[in-house]
Design goal:
Strand content of chain B: 5-15%
CATH superfamily of the largest domain in chain A: Dihydropteroate synthase-like
CATH topology of the largest domain in chain A: TIM Barrel
Strand order of the largest sheet of chain A: 10-9-8-7-6-3-12-11
Structural class of chain B: alpha/beta
Mean pLDDT of chain B: 88
Radius of gyration of chain A: 28 Å
CATH class of the largest domain in chain B: Alpha Beta
Number of strands of chain A: 17
Oligomer: heterodimer
Structural class of chain A: alpha/beta
CATH architecture of the largest domain in chain A: Alpha-Beta Barrel
Helix content of chain B: 25-40%
Largest sheet of chain B: 8 strands, parallel, barrel
Strand content of chain A: 5-15%
Number of helices of chain B: 13
Distance between the termini of chain B: 70 Å
Shape of chain B: globular
Helix content of chain A: 25-40%
Amino acid sequence: MTEREVKRGIRQLSPIDVYMLLPRTNCKECGEANCMAFAAKLVNREVSLEQCPPILKKEHEKAYKKLQEILAPVIKEITIGTGEHAVKIGGKLVMYRHEFTYHNPAPIAFDVTDEMPLHARFPGEEAIIDRAKKVENFLYNYIGRDLKLDMINIRSTSNDPTTFRSAVEEVTKTTDLPLILCTFDPSVMEAGLIAASGRKPLIYAATKDNWKEMADLALMYDCPLAIFAPNDLDLLRSLSKTLIEYGVEDLVLDPGTFSNEGLSDTLNNFTMVRRNACKGGDELFGFPLIGAPITAWFGEKGSKEMLAWNEAYVASMLVSRYADILIMRSIDGWVQLPNVIWRFNIYTDPRKPVSVDAQLYAFGKPDEMSPVMLTTNYALTYFTVESDLKKFGGNYYLIVADTEGISVESAVAGRYLTAETIAEAVKNSGVAEKVKHKYLIIPGMAARLSGETEDELKNVGLPGWRVIVGSRDSSGIAKLLKEKWPPKEGEEK
Amino acid sequence: MKTLGEEKKLDTKLAKLLKLLGLEGNRDIELEDVELTIGELVLDPSALTSAALKAVTPPKMKAVAPPTVKPTTLLEAPFIPFVQEYPGKIKEVTLGATKSKGGSRKPVVIGGATTPAFYLFEKTPPNPPVISVDVFDMKVTLPKAIRMQVEDVWEDTAVWAKRAVDKWGAKVLTLHLLSTDPLIKDTSPAEAMKTVEEVLQAVDVPLIIGGCGDPKKDAAVFTKIAEMAEGERVLLSSVTLDMDEAGVLEGVAKAAAKHGHLILGFTALDLNRAKELNRKLCDYIPEGDILMDLTTAALGYGLEYSFTIHERARMAALMGDTELQHPVLSGTTNAWAAREAWMNLGPEWEPRSLRGPLWETVTALSLLLAGVDLFMMMHPDAIRTMKKVTQQLMTRGKAKPEKIANWVNAKI
């Protein structure tokens, strides 16, 4: 089997193939029960090879190399930045998400130019430090996870080395976020690289005209190098080959991002490049792809909102279609929120179940007078409610009804959540033995089931239970409890 | 002895070969584990002039080959697309029927894909994906961004339908008969039929008839409407395996087949169940009259499940799984179920008038790339963007490199 075939078949890689190359001493130094268990986790990318101390020893050098080879992703993993602020891009094992989990969520780099002022002089003016701070401060809590923005793209519109150098210096003083330096002029680039020394920025970009000088800079400053070949895959591939032969190992590919009439070419190019790498074993295309939705702002007419809107949806399409890193302009919350959430989603494990176990969950330390709520077992519904309950603090019981992994609204519409299933869920949860009160809070989306549910609860042997209709969204639970809990005797009857 | 001409030919051939290997130029090259076969060629060392063959590095196509000499000119490595064959094809389905075909609609054709979505480098899709606009038969709870577009007409379904067609350019309309829900208004099948009749009069686009979700009630309503709208090729949305359990699936499917309509099979993110439902439907209705709804979860609320199941379904269908070769529909308006689409999250996330429709847009575009053929949508801005993008994605070769060639210098 040639190396390429092995890589192409990475998904079919069997733990046995990996096991045979491991030391097979079952020393447990990796924390696993034995070498076979470690091999299985390696194949699933749940551990890294270096977590096996013996394999790093001299006597296993050959096996280590071989393992590195057969475990190497088809899309090379490239590091931008250093130390704890480094970001990894690429490292994809497959083309389609259903084949295997996508690795390394695409970082988004935000544009500043060396001709911007450091601080805004009038409201709304774009400024270097203000923008860098805004990128750093972006934060959205989504089902209990903090979603953030990632990088700064420093671009030279002045084409003047001194101006660029001082802009890069200002950014490096302001933020530790990883950087892209953006100019086609090698002397301007070098000025930036000097100012960003020790930060290992991504050099953007080598073109058909400047590739030699840019390659020298990439080697001299030990930085990854992007290739820009707009809508020209022959050139992109030729540059990849040339730069590899030149000795540059870490490349990032940009086939050009076009909005509007060029959008089709953009998506086809990204798809062809990724497919050749993943399905055709084309190693010259086995590098991360960089998308630049920022180009939606150039050469297009329209209001600021319209251009930001275009940038936003182009970005989302590139997140779906193989971009491993993005350069964007708008930092506005409404533009970035859908993208950071979509990025988070698409990089999750596709084997993750759609549903959680239907059972009784306790939050905090619920006692006999704690509120009892009910929701469905769709994973996202559960995680949303869970995240809200944790945010509010306090002690609750949450009954999760089995709706075959469907959200509340759809489950009510599709008759997966009915008075009968609710009553069953309450009975099976055993919550009636844990609390002294007889109140069940149901989702606002299921309001119309409230009357029937009280009857059904009686039928399953829980007489006297009353239903309180909760908020339509779990973000409203705190307010609801403040108003309605503890229920005053008789009020709900 | 070779003639001078033969020697030259040999030189050219070798130069070509070396060029193909990306090894032309004045470089140290060593041949290892390589078999050269150039016709009946006999290599005469004297013919191997220095320019052509000093040595060869192993022509393994290894990504990182430590070079002895750095290239000084661009090494050409032309791009050859990896080509895949797909034995399967998605069925082409016509929604609505013209007068000559027994209806009174402007028909719309969807499906027919022979490659994954918008792989134009393999083949241009035969039909662009189509957007159907949602209309309800009663006042419903809607997010503000949508409500303000329709609240002046939502007491009159026919007027609402007309607005969707005339103002938002709907090519297909979905009429949701929500009021038939026994837990809402329990509108009778006869009344529902009347509403459908009004809408059929008011607009000339194909209709999708949405039920309330109650298997038995939907079956009764669908059967009645199928009869009334004979020949119009409406799409009944939707039938489920629950209808089969309730013993009403057969009746609905047979009514659809008898009166010339289409059927949408709904399953919840489960391809095995989707296949099972399609198998059952095929017993009663031509397989070319079946569409699938594999469930659309909102962005932030499970869209990745929908995205992946659509990609899987489409790939399986193209690779030959006949039970999945039906066009797929997405209830994209579900995007508004995500709180991020409508909730006040604080000033830094405003304006909601953009965030909400963008939410629907991104949900739609993600599924567009996963292969969805028919979208049910609601917000005019999301609809506008989707129409623009689907149109743009139908042709290739319009990118103008000069437009972005120097973007790094552009000022905003």
